[in-house]
Amino acid sequence: MASTHGAEVLVASNRGPVSYELREDGSLHSRRGGGGLVSGLSAIGPDAGAVWVCAALGDADREAARRFEGDRRLPADATGGQQVRMLDIGAEVFHDAYNGIANSVLWFVHHMLYQTPLEPVFDAEFRRRWASYEAYNRAFAQALAEEAAEGAAVVVQDYHLTLVPGMLRDLRPDVRIGHFSHTPWAPVDYFRMLPDDVAEQVLRGMLGADRLGFLTRRWADAFTACCEEVTGGLGGTRVGVHGLGADADFLRERAHRDDVGERMAALREEIGTAPDGGPRRTIVRVDRTELSKNIVRGLLAYRQLLEDHPEWRERVAHVAFAYPSRQDLAVYRDYTAEVERVAAEINERYGTPGWTPVVLHVRDDFARSLAAYRLADVALVNPIRDGMNLVAKEVPILSDGGCALVLSREAGAYAELGEDALVVNPYDVTGTARALHEALTMPDHERAERCKRLTAAATALPPTRWFLDQLSALRDEPAAG
Ligand code: G6P
Question: What is the pTM for the complete model shown?
Fold first, then answer.
């Protein structure tokens, strides 16, 4: 099946670098996505002949996948010249695999999100969805097998595609297969909530790879512990750690464009000025409205700060952006409503005619996020569990005045930033309120010094290097300098 004209490098991920929108007149409009993987892959450039295989996520993507099926590639003008193959897996199978298994089961297991007295329930409905997850993984494995040149390097991404390495290994024993997890990995007792055969299938699927990558040593060790207990070890598979850093060059350039300047002016209006006429201190958080991001406890900690330290009233504002995510899942919609409810309650309780304590926005706007980063005095990143968390790295890089970072010890970023952040237990609302106070009262020179070191750590492994290091390791080459 190996094609002599196949690609030497392939990437596979659920979400690709482009998404489509279908207009009423039937025309398709493409939008290029951001994020570490997109910039990482752009490092090898369109000329390298790499192919990126991704799924069609919605109706418009499926329409695009069908229209361009004959070419097996999306048009180059939509992808910045990258070769992208978008797979139409069928709306129902996709829904069951993505929402029903990847986001409701595997994401929940790795982030330990179940309310265990009632969840999870692995019944016949789960088995039906699991069959879709298998079919969806098989579609990827088959597409990759068709596209790969003899001996090619294939890098598979994340929990959506855990079965792909094993399936691809069966179809194409000649290729080198890597898999990278962008999430935490569950502790073994928690992981073993999965039905035994499913737990084993996930691990054996991943062990089909030559090399597995994780964001921190902690997640890599948790995976290894699961294998020791369930499959009797890693077999021949190697495990490595690559802590994805922020793309500082891109961010700095993007954050100094006019649209960001305009949003900074608008945000300053919303934040307002302190009674003495000076600017209000600004605590910033930016997240997907994601259960694991712990937005509600973050708001409760801010409320407690206002309660315990009335001197901050009128002198501080909490800019909280909680962007829509996975809204097909009821539990995410409910969480969004809870975030809005708690923010409104704080504004009602403490707000004054000239002061809105929580400036909450729930509509996605990248330029406005960058504007908030630049204005931040304090960044609040308090997830209950997070693979890495790039916001913790991005805000220190962009904050104009140098920010303090309040950081959960359960974020992967803690391994790299822990020394210069104010570290919190994410469940401890009182402790988080205390850390916010400490961050707001940190002497300027100390904040500047810490922020400088945070920035250095945050940029240590930019996406390009992160991606190329994985490729080198997969090919047994020495890492790029
Ligand atoms: C996490 C996952 C990614 C995913 C992203 C956004 O960072 O590791 O694989 O793409 O969340 O989630 P979504 O479901 O919108 O793709």
Answer: 0.96
